[in-house]
């Protein structure tokens, strides 16, 4: 499968921003700025869990909605946690797993990410697994070992059907929220390396079909160049997704590249 046959996905990670009162205005502004709703692009919004029903209603099936995190158990005495089936009942279709902020700030491990991937799939949701290295790891020349270790420990052993429901996001930790962005050629190299690893872990056909997004200070002025790389199949957008117009510009750039 060629890059043009894979879906182009543009996803907004709202992190711990926005309230229900913000949703309607944001979506109106976003779709006004993107009249064709990003033809040829799969749009995804990852709001805080409490906002999921409001976002589902506001996008009116023009986009998918996902959870930013979940627990690996379906229920239990885990105060403050959210189960995958709860996200599904709220209208979510996807879940982010292993976002760098979860790994760095909350101590999330590769083993926990692996359990979350399985739990998400078992709940009928699709996981978007995030992998990426820190600045120290990159400067030590360990970026490939770190990223491929995160990847293999989280997805090894899935079934062919489960692999077909998985998306990946490469997000170098040093580029998230810092304004620094991986050079397009460097990002492409890592994406190609990840795809080769998926071919070894699963199969070449699965690797060829799997969407791999880039995340790390994606903005309107760099989106087109990043998304134009052959192994970059979309963007997981953080800070720039909080502004409806900026996110619409990124979605439009993705649509143009995908056309």
Would you give an account of this structure?
Helix 1 (20-33) runs parallel beside helix 2 (52-59) and helix 1 (20-33) crosses helix 12. Helix content is 44%, strand content 14%. It has 259 residues and is of the alpha/beta class. The mean pLDDT is 94. The protein has an 8-stranded parallel beta sheet with strand order 7-6-5-4-3-2-1-8. Helix 1 links the parallel strand 1 (8-13) and strand 2. It has helices spanning 20-33, 52-59, 84-89, 100-106, 110-122, 135-139, 143-155, 160-164, 184-201, 204-209, 223-227, 244-258, and strands at residues 8-13, 41-46, 64-67, 94-97, 126-131, 167-170, 212-214, 234-237. The protein has one domain: TIM Barrel (Alpha-Beta Barrel). The chain is globular, with a radius of gyration of 17 Å. The longest helix has 18 residues, at 184-201. The two termini are 17 Å apart.
Keyphrases for this structure?
alpha/beta, single chain, 259 residues, 8 strands, TIM Barrel, eight-stranded parallel beta sheet, 44% helix, 14% strand
Describe the structure in brief.
Helices cover 44% and strands 14% of the residues.
Topology (SSEs and partners):
Elements: E1 8-13, H1 20-33, E2 41-46, H2 52-59, E3 64-67, H3 84-89, E4 94-97, H4 100-106, H5 110-122, E5 126-131, H6 135-139, H7 143-155, H8 160-164, E6 167-170, H9 184-201, H10 204-209, E7 212-214, H11 223-227, E8 234-237, H12 244-258
Parallel strand pairs: 1-2, 1-8, 2-3, 3-4, 4-5, 5-6, 6-7
């Amino acid at each position: 499968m060629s890059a043009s046959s894979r879906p182009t996905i543009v996803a907004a990670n709202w992190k711990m921003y926005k309230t229900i009162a913000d949703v309607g205005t944001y979506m109106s502004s976003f779709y006004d700025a993107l009249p064709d709703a990003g033809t040829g692009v799969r749009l995804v919004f990852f709001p805080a869990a409490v906002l999921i029903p409001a976002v589902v209603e506001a996008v009116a099936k023009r986009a998918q909605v996902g959870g930013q995190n979940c627990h690996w158990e379906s229920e239990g005495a885990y105060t403050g946690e959210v189960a995958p089936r709860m996200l599904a009942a709220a209208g979510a279709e996807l879940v982010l797993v292993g976002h760098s902020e979860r790994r760095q700030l909350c101590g999330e491990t590769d083993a926990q990410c692996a359990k979350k991937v399985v739990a998400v799939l078992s709940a009928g949701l699709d996981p978007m697994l995030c992998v990426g290295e820190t600045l120290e790891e990159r400067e030590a020349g360990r970026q490939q070992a770190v990223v491929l270790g995160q990847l293999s420990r989280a997805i090894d052993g899935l079934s062919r059907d489960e692999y077909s429901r998985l998306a990946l996001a490469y997000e170098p930790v040093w580029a998230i929220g810092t304004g620094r962005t991986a050079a397009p050629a460097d990002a492409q190299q890592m994406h190609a390396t990840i795809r080769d690893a998926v071919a070894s872990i699963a199969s070449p056909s699965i690797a060829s079909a799997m969407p791999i997004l880039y995340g790390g200070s994606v903005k309107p002025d760099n989106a087109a160049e990043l998304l134009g790389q052959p192994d970059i199949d979309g963007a997981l957008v953080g800070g720039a997704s909080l502004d409806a117009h900026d996110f619409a510009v990124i979605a439009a750039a993705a649509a143009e590249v995908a056309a």
